[in-house]
Write a structure and sequence with these properties.
mainly alpha
């Protein structure tokens, strides 16, 4: 199943094959994987060295949105599609969200409250 790849890469390839993510999403995943490694090795400097660039919040939001889209795709195309109780029911796809995603949304709101408030002020 892994075809000589890591579980992460095999899972990513699987999501591409089934149409859950696009080639653009795949590029975002590659960028984020590289960035995650950079942050993991430079976390102390990022947090405490003013000369270091701050976290790439935009990239974090992009990946968060991608995770939400993957969750939504899975729920709509696998879980609901294979559950007879949902046949012929009208579903507002934008409202579909996993428990994991609800938790992550709350975590982002708490962890990045200051950033979100600043973005809101700039947009107003």
């Amino acid at each position: 199943m892994l075809r000589g790849k890591s579980a992460f890469r095999a899972c990513r390839d699987f999501h591409i094959e089934i149409g859950a993510i696009s080639s653009e999403d795949d590029e975002l995943i590659d960028r984020f994987s590289a960035y995650r490694g950079e942050v993991a090795h430079e976390l102390y400097s990022i947090l405490f060295d003013d000369s270091k660039a701050a976290l790439d919040v935009d990239l974090l939001f992009q990946v968060h949105r991608l995770a939400r889209n993957i969750d939504r795709w899975w729920i709509l195309n696998v879980e609901i599609a294979t559950d007879g109780d949902w046949v012929d029911k009208e579903i507002d796809e934008e409202q579909v969200m996993s428990g994991r995603q609800l938790f992550l949304d709350q975590l982002v709101r708490v962890a990045l409250k200051d950033v979100l408030d600043l973005l809101e002020e700039e947009g107003a």
